[in-house]
């Protein structure tokens, strides 16, 4: 039976590189893995998923894909796997639709995303994925102190920001992964502190 996966990690944990590698592995075996992302995330321009390490790939917006599937379910017959990047930005209903696709079409759906926002609270999509998924896996990375990074701090002028909208798209310069202690204290690495 296919499964619904949620692979989460903080900013800078190579989630996107992982997603692109899984896609590559499917392609190498001549299998069709569909790469999706939410429309909201236009950080890397239109319909491109790009990793920090330089690899990138074309993708389809989740919204467009689900609309196409609604119009023609046979699309799913040619699909070996669905890979979703930035899955934290999914709506509850979208996460539920992907769970349905796993169960009724036996297609694995692998979601990559952040678990919590810069306030340390669950994103809508992440919450529903945690509730629904068969497999939850953490992609680990470390805080500047060497402990496991679990929180996404939004930073500006060498300081940790506590207020603002949940979604404010930015690259690596706006966010940094911290351990709980340093997230709570708001203590950044010397490099981040000096980066004003
Ligand atoms: Zn730390």
TrEMBL record:
<dbReference type="GO" id="GO:0005524">
    <property type="term" value="F:ATP binding"/>
</dbReference>
<dbReference type="InterPro" id="IPR027417">
    <property type="entry name" value="P-loop_NTPase"/>
</dbReference>
<feature type="binding site">
    <location>
        <begin position="167"/>
        <end position="170"/>
    </location>
    <ligand>
        <name>substrate</name>
    </ligand>
</feature>
<keyword id="KW-0237">DNA synthesis</keyword>
<comment type="similarity">
    <text>Belongs to the thymidine kinase family.</text>
</comment>
<comment type="subunit">
    <text>Homotetramer.</text>
</comment>
<feature type="binding site">
    <location>
        <position position="179"/>
    </location>
    <ligand>
        <name>Zn(2+)</name>
    </ligand>
</feature>
<dbReference type="GO" id="GO:0004797">
    <property type="term" value="F:thymidine kinase activity"/>
</dbReference>
<keyword id="KW-0418">Kinase</keyword>
<protein>
    <recommendedName>
        <fullName>Thymidine kinase</fullName>
        <ecNumber>2.7.1.21</ecNumber>
    </recommendedName>
</protein>
<dbReference type="InterPro" id="IPR001267">
    <property type="entry name" value="Thymidine_kinase"/>
</dbReference>
<dbReference type="GO" id="GO:0005829">
    <property type="term" value="C:cytosol"/>
</dbReference>
<keyword id="KW-0067">ATP-binding</keyword>
<dbReference type="GO" id="GO:0008270">
    <property type="term" value="F:zinc ion binding"/>
</dbReference>
<keyword id="KW-0479">Metal-binding</keyword>
<keyword id="KW-0862">Zinc</keyword>
<keyword id="KW-0808">Transferase</keyword>
<feature type="active site" description="Proton acceptor">
    <location>
        <position position="86"/>
    </location>
</feature>
<dbReference type="Pfam" id="PF00265">
    <property type="entry name" value="TK"/>
</dbReference>
<feature type="binding site">
    <location>
        <position position="182"/>
    </location>
    <ligand>
        <name>Zn(2+)</name>
    </ligand>
</feature>
<feature type="binding site">
    <location>
        <begin position="85"/>
        <end position="88"/>
    </location>
    <ligand>
        <name>ATP</name>
    </ligand>
</feature>
<feature type="binding site">
    <location>
        <position position="175"/>
    </location>
    <ligand>
        <name>substrate</name>
    </ligand>
</feature>
<dbReference type="GO" id="GO:0046104">
    <property type="term" value="P:thymidine metabolic process"/>
</dbReference>
<keyword id="KW-0963">Cytoplasm</keyword>
<dbReference type="GO" id="GO:0071897">
    <property type="term" value="P:DNA biosynthetic process"/>
</dbReference>
<feature type="binding site">
    <location>
        <position position="145"/>
    </location>
    <ligand>
        <name>Zn(2+)</name>
    </ligand>
</feature>
<feature type="binding site">
    <location>
        <position position="143"/>
    </location>
    <ligand>
        <name>Zn(2+)</name>
    </ligand>
</feature>
<keyword id="KW-0547">Nucleotide-binding</keyword>
């Amino acid at each position: 039976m296919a499964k619904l996966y949620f692979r989460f990690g903080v900013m800078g944990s190579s989630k996107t590189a992982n997603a692109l590698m899984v896609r590559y592995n499917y392609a190498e075996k001549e299998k069709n893995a569909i790469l999706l992302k939410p429309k909201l995330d236009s950080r890397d321009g239109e319909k491109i998923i790009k990793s920090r390490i330089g690899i990138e790939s074309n993708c389809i917006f989740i919204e467009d894909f689900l609309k196409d599937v609604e119009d023609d379910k046979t699309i799913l017959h040619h699909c070996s796997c669905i890979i979703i990047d930035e899955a934290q930005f999914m709506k509850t209903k979208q996460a539920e639709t992907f769970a349905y696709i796993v169960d009724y079409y036996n297609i694995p759906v692998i979601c990559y995303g952040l678990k919590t926002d810069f306030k340390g609270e669950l994103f809508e999509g992440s919450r529903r994925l945690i509730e629904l998924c068969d497999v939850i896996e953490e992609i680990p990375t470390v805080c500047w102190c060497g402990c496991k990074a679990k929180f996404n701090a939004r930073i500006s002028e060498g300081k940790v920001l506590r207020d603002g909208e949940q979604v404010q798209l930015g690259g690596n310069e706006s966010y940094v992964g911290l351990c709980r202690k340093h997230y709570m204290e708001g203590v950044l690495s010397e490099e981040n502190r000096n980066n004003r």
